[in-house]
Amino acid sequence: MPIAELATWISAGLAIVAVGIAGWQLWLARRAAREALERAEAMRRLAAAVESNAAKAAGSAQAARAQAERAWEQVKLADRQLEEARQERRTATQTEQWEWAYAVTTVARELVDTGQELIRSALDTQVAPHHRVAAERYYRQTTRRWQETMIKAVARTSPPLEVQQQFVTFSDVHQRLHGHLGVLLRAVETSTLAEGDALTKQILGLRHELNNAHRNLQRTVSATLTAPESPTQQIAAAPGS
Q: How far apart (Å, rounded) are the C-alpha atoms in residues 201 and 123?
């Protein structure tokens, strides 16, 4: 085979090899480009998913913040309502304390007055018997009203110890005077009462003592009214008492 023909065949073979290599490289390049496109698409989808999740998270955070704000408003509203209820309770309690204090001090004053009137009726020989009976009846009614009012006031207002002690003192003096009044009335009815005897002196002394006990009761109740508020409910003094 001539050298020229051999060279031609060699050149042709080399060209075919070169074409094959070029085709193989082109296929590799296309595959790489396709893979790059697929990776880019995957990255795009991932970025979109991340963006969507971020938007959802932002929406959830916004909703949570709104819920927190609403909850805080509800807490503040509940706190205001609780404070209003406490204020209403304090006002109602104070009003009840004033009412019971007025009742207690008023009935105590009435008991002192009716007791003095009964003593005057019993010691005055010029008083008609039916007037003395009426004075005794009014005195006994006032005594029952005092006992009922005092018991209810203590039960409903839980007065401080100082006021309770004054209740006890006033009641003790009244009970002693009450016993002597019974003896006095029987002595008057049987005309056995002597002027200036020991019974009369004791009764006049107890009348004075009861009047002092009533003044101390009023003073203690008034002091309780003006004292700073304490956890223990206090019984308040009546206006002008």
A: 11
- Give the angle subtended at the CA of 80 by the CAs of 79 and 83, to the nearest 5°: 85
User: What would the pLDDT profile of 177-218 be if each residue is shown by its tens digit?
Assistant: 999 999 999 998 888 877 778 999 999 999 999 999 999 999
Query: In this predicted model, what pLDDT tens digit does every residue of 23-75 receive, in sequence order?
Result: 888 888 888 888 888 888 888 888 888 888 888 888 888 888 888 888 888 88
**Residue 122 contacts residue 184 (beta carbons within 8 Å):** yes
| pTM (predicted TM-score) | 0.60
Amino acid type, 20: G
**3-state SS record for the chain:** CCHHHHHHHHHHHHHHHHHHHHHHHHHHHHHHHHHHHHHHHHHHHHHHHHHHHHHHHHHHHHHHHHHHHHHHHHHHHHHHHHHHHHHHHHHHHHHHHHHHHHHHHHHHHHHHHHHHHHHHHHHCCCCCHHHHHHHHHHHHHHHHHHHHHHHHHHHHHCCCHHHHHHHHHHHHHHHHHHHHHHHHHHHHHCCCCCCCCHHHHHHHHHHHHHHHHHHHHHHHHHHHHHCCCCCCCCCCCCCCC
Token pair 């005195």: residue: 139
